[in-house]
Specification:
heterodimer; A: 469 residues; alpha/beta; five-stranded mixed sheet; three-stranded antiparallel sheet; 8 strands; B: 291 residues; mainly alpha; MetI-like fold; 14 helices; 2 strands; 74% helix
Chain lengths: 469, 291
């Protein structure tokens, strides 16, 4: 009887231990479920989502400058709504001051600002469905939201409405990105730089320095093999699961679709070579498969911040997150520029501001979108967080030529030259989300189901062609 | 009776009826309508007849999702067996047993997202399970549990069982406490050991609870979403290895913006659930008649 009692208590204790183990797990990774895909490993969106960015820096409000009033015909007494993505509460001070300056510059116009975060796209879709969408919307270029909404006819064509003198304010590559049928639907806003954060301690263990970080994408495979062999660690690389076609275009110089837009062509030799690089790394066990296939950039960043990954591609602004989570690692940190893909294009824009097609106040809305993206507003924003302006004139500010004080600002002197080369080289993809699902399935079958890369992409092309027929 | 008095019950019912009409009846009718349309939430729906339903039955991923949901269903008896065992274990007078009973119930009152995140942490490449296995020398390199297609569904099922076992054991515990103690005394006099005692008395005595738990847990199994959403970080797992019907419905509606097609999947799921519920209710009625 006593034995049975002890046995039952033992059994109960074992179950209790398992229960407590799980409930005691940290919930610090909570953003996983809520971090939207737009927060992928690109600098600016990370800036916007970074909880460790300085807590609501209250910038000194700039005085009103009549020279900022460059849009004519703004409707009298216009009341416009403005949605941003993941900027509150960190940048409340900046946004509110800029709105106040805008309202003083364009007297009579009132702006109602809302910041939406994890549910941004759901909220926006619902708002469009209910005919209550905001007049001015912060959309991610890097995630292809502009072309997505423009294709559905809900954004205002800016080419017809904005004078050439205003268009010339921006880097030409940024103004022309995400064109739909040759028309532009966005004002380029804040930009990011793609950098690699390097854990020097792991690199030293493998006999490497940050100078050994490859300059081109081809160098990643041997680097990861070295890190596995000598430092017993795997690489923290992420596929852009939400936009694989863009990734294969930039990294592999793949032509995804024919010139007439009617036949997919990503099963070319370039496409196969691009996929084979990842297949080889998975087969060699040199990459973290979870990070590789996640939609959540925080997975890789947390792994890196915990000191368990040799490097991670992100924006310099997120170095602050490493600093707040792991001071020791921050002191062992190096930064290298992200390796160049075979397209030789360093990247594309990050965030933009668009105007709703059926807004009652098109000129006031255009004025607000332009005001937030003008050089003066952008310089002030860049002074608070490591993001970069979309206009060459903004870089004339002495702030950008000043010597960087912290490692997170180390890429600042190079920013203008890099951003000037940004271009969206991905052609318009019909039924993009569905095609991406098809490509994702093909990529996963090659990576994890031993389907040859050529065969996987051939099937994906056939399925994608059938979809758009 | 005056007309005024006759109207009174209807006036009292009106608020509830209005709420049900707005939040239950209208959404159901809307889903039925959308299931016959091509609808992306933003632009107006376009009538496509039965095209969405034809597509559902030709869609490989739908069948995969259905298979996963059925596998989940098959795991239900494990949940019942474990819950019953736990109820029997804690159905005794021991010092501090109330504390144990309360602790087993903790997962039932914890948020499913929090539980999912905890499990993800456990099964992470650098998680506690790999650490233990490496420490005791069972593995040399960490296993990438959540990036291995064949492991996603078993881990999700284990999570569901772990999270549900406390809740269902409370139901069984209530049932056990209704079984007269004299029956156990008689069994003991007849020479039954503990296993026989529970086999011949406890389990037959728990039959109503078993049927009840089977019905609600199997319906819950058909609606699994949270576990997959969190464990796979919204991807459904590599090669859709963890995609269930509700997850697939969510992906179609909110990731791919195919609200019309998602509505068709919802209607098919509704039909399956309805058939399942009717079968279960028939079993319950038959059991009541036998009792």
């Amino acid at each position: 009887m006593k034995f049975k009692r002890i046995l039952s208590i033992g059994l109960a204790s074992a179950l209790l231990v398992s229960a407590c183990t799980s409930t005691a797990a940290p919930s610090a990774s909570a953003p996983a479920a809520s971090t939207p895909p737009a927060a992928s490993a690109t600098a600016g969106s990370s800036a916007a989502t970074s909880p460790s960015a300085p807590a609501s820096v209250a910038p000194t409000a700039l005085p009103v400058d009549p020279a900022e009033k460059i849009i004519d015909g703004v409707e009298a007494n216009a009341e416009i709504s403005f949605w941003t993505f993941y900027l509150s509460p960190t940048f409340d001070g900046y946004i509110k001051d800029t709105i106040a300056r805008f309202e003083a510059t364009y007297p009579g116009v009132k702006v109602k600002w809302e910041d939406h975060q994890a549910t941004f796209q759901d909220d926006l879709n619902n708002a469009f469905a209910a005919k209550i969408a905001p007049d001015v919307i912060n959309l991610s270029v890097s995630e292809g939201w502009v072309s997505d909404y423009a294709t559905r006819g809900v954004l205002l064509n800016l080419d017809d409405k904005v004078p050439q003198s205003v268009k010339d304010i921006y880097f030409p590559g940024l103004w022309k990105e995400q064109l739909v049928d040759g028309k532009n639907y966005q004002f380029p806003w804040y930009q990011g730089l793609n950098v690699e954060l390097i854990n020097k301690r792991i690199f030293e263990k493998a006999g490497l320095t940050e100078a050994d970080f490859p300059k081109t994408i081809d160098g990643l495979k041997p680097l990861c093999q070295t890190l596995k062999d000598k430092a017993s660690t795997v690489c923290d690389i992420r596929l852009t699961v939400n936009d694989l076609i863009a990734q294969m275009v930039y990294e592999g110089n793949v032509k995804p679709i024919s010139a007439d837009g009617k036949t997919f062509t990503f099963n070319s030799a370039e496409g196969v070579a691009w996929l084979q690089m990842y297949v080889d790394m998975v087969a060699a066990g040199t990459v973290d498969n979870t990070t590789l296939t996640t939609t959540d950039d925080r997975t890789g960043l947390l792994l890196f911040s915990a000191g368990q990954a040799p490097f991670y591609a992100t924006g310099p602004n997120l170095i602050r997150e490493v600093k707040s989570n792991n001071e020791t690692l921050y002191n062992d940190l190096a930064v290298a520029m992200a390796p160049l893909g075979k397209s030789n294009v360093t990247g594309k824009g990050l965030m933009s501001i668009s105007v709703k097609a059926d807004t009652k106040f098109p000129n006031a809305s255009i004025a607000l979108a332009q005001f937030f993206t003008n050089p003066r507003s952008m310089v002030q924003f860049a002074q608070q967080v490591s993001i970069y302006p979309s206009s060459p004139k903004a870089f004339e500010d002495p702030f950008f030529s000043s010597a960087p004080a912290a490692i997170e600002d180390s890429a600042r002197p190079l920013a203008k030259d890099i951003i000037a080369t940004y271009a969206d080289i991905v052609p318009t993809i019909p039924k993009k989300a569905d095609v991406n699902q098809i490509v994702l399935k093909a990529v996963q079958s090659a990576l994890f189901d031993k389907v040859p890369a050529q065969q996987a992409l051939d099937k994906a092309v056939a399925d994608a062609n059938a979809l758009i027929k | 009776m005056t007309n005024k008095l006759r109207a009174a019950p209807y006036i009292f019912l009106l608020p509830a009826v209005a709420l049900i009409a707005v939040f239950v009846v209208y959404p159901i009718l809307a889903v039925v309508y959308y299931s016959f349309t091509d609808y992306d939430i933003i632009t107006p729906p376009v009538w496509v007849g039965f095209a969405n339903f034809v597509h559902v039955f030709q869609d490989e991923t739908f069948w995969l999702a259905l298979t996963h949901s059925v596998i989940y269903l098959v795991a239900t008896p494990i949940l019942i067996g474990l819950s019953m065992t736990l109820a029997i274990v804690v159905n005794r007078k021991l010092r501090g047993i109330h504390l144990y009973r309360a602790l087993y119930f903790v997962p039932a009152v914890s948020g499913s997202i929090a539980i999912g995140l905890s499990w993800r942490w456990l099964f992470d490449r650098n998680g506690i399970i790999n650490s233990i296995l490496q420490t005791v020398g069972l593995i040399h390199e960490p296993i990438q549990w959540l990036a291995t297609p064949s492991l996603i569904l078993p881990i999700a099922i284990m999570l569901t069982i772990w999270a549900g076992v406390g809740y269902y054991s409370v139901i069984f515990l209530a049932g056990l406490q209704n079984i007269p103690e004299e029956l156990y005394d008689a069994a003991r006099i007849d020479g039954c050991n503990d296993v026989q005692k529970h086999w011949y008395i406890s389990i037959p005595g728990l039959r109503p609870q078993i049927v009840f738990v089977f019905v609600i847990s199997s319906l819950a199994a058909l609606k699994v979403f949270d576990e997959i959403y969190v464990l796979t970080q919204r991807t459904g797992g590599i090669l859709d290895s963890g995609v269930t019907m509700v997850f697939y419905l969510w992906r179609q509606a909110f990731q791919l913006h195919h609200a019309g097609y998602a509505s068709a999947i919802a209607i098919v799921l509704l039909a399956i659930t309805l058939v399942f519920s009717i079968v279960n209710v028939r079993i319950l009625e038959r059991q009541d008649a036998e009792a």
